[in-house]
Amino acid sequence: MTTPSSTTDAQAGKSGWNTVPDEVVAHDATEGLQGIFKVGQEGSVVGRYEPLIVTLRLYAGWLLAWYFVLYAFGGYQAVRDLPFRIPLVDEFLASPLLAEASLAVFLFLLLSSVHRTAKGGALLGLSLTLLGIILVGLFSVNIR
């Protein structure tokens, strides 16, 4: 983290910004952030990657949160008169494709949580995937 300071150029370099001292970074990397970083050879900090499913669940969660915000605005616009209209929300609520996508994201998060909680293997994962596809397909047939 860098912070502006009034130190001399000899102390902070030519940019005029202080950087976090090396001993603080080494302390945090080896003790405070052990689950994320590890110290490699010659004291370099090496990051680790999360599994793909964790990243997909993170992105799906944020997508579902934005869908919820848009549905909340749409529901409020339907009940109360606002001094302004949000055309994106009107189109969002009228689109069956986005309703299917919302359900698919919700089912992905739900079924992947069930799979994780049950500590299931490939067979449970495949069956939950098929269940999710069938549910989204049935919803798609009935919404159109």
Secondary structure blueprint with pairings:
Elements: E1 3-4, H1 9-12, E2 17-18, H2 22-32, E3 37-39, E4 45-47, H3 52-79, H4 87-94, H5 96-118, H6 122-143
Antiparallel strand pairs: 1-2, 3-4
Helix pairs in contact: 3-4, 3-5, 5-6
Spatially, the strands of the biggest sheet line up as: 1-2
The secondary structure category is mainly alpha
The major pleated sheet works out as: 2 strands, antiparallel
What percentage of amino acids are in beta strands? 5-15%
In the predicted model, the low-confidence regions spanning at least 5 consecutive residues are 5-13, 20-30
The total number of structural domains is 2
Q: Please give the number of β-strands.
A: 4
Distance from N terminus to C terminus (CA atoms, Å) equals 52 Å
H/I helix tally: 6
Which H/E pattern describes the elements? EHEHEEHHHH
Rg, Cα atoms, Å: 24 Å
Shape: flat
The level of helicity is: 55-70%
Question: How would you briefly describe this protein structure?
Answer:
With 144 residues, the protein is mostly helical. The protein contains six helices and four strands, in the order βαβαββαααα.
